[in-house]
Model the fold of this input.
Amino acid sequence: MTRYWFRPKRYGYGATPTTWEGWAFTGLIVAIIAVGALLPLRNGHGPGGTTALLWWAFVAIVIALTVAVAKFKTYGAWRWRWGRD
Done:
C-alpha cells in the first residue's frame, strides 16, 4: 500500500503536503535550493557566466525531480481545479 504525502490542491493545479513526510520533503527541497543559492556567494560576489548557467541547470533538475516525486506521491490526479471537487 502506497502512503500518499500530498493531496491535489482545491484551487488551481498541483498538490499540497498533507503528511509529515510531505512537509519534510518540501522543507528538504527548500533547504537544498537555499544552500545551492548561497554556495556561489561565499566569496562575496554574485554568480556570473558559467556559474549562473550551472546554478539554473541545478534548479531546473531539482524542480523536475520534485514535481516527479510529488506527482507519484499524490492521492489523485493533477489537473486544474475550481474548488468544486
Summary: DSSP finds two helices and four strands in the chain.
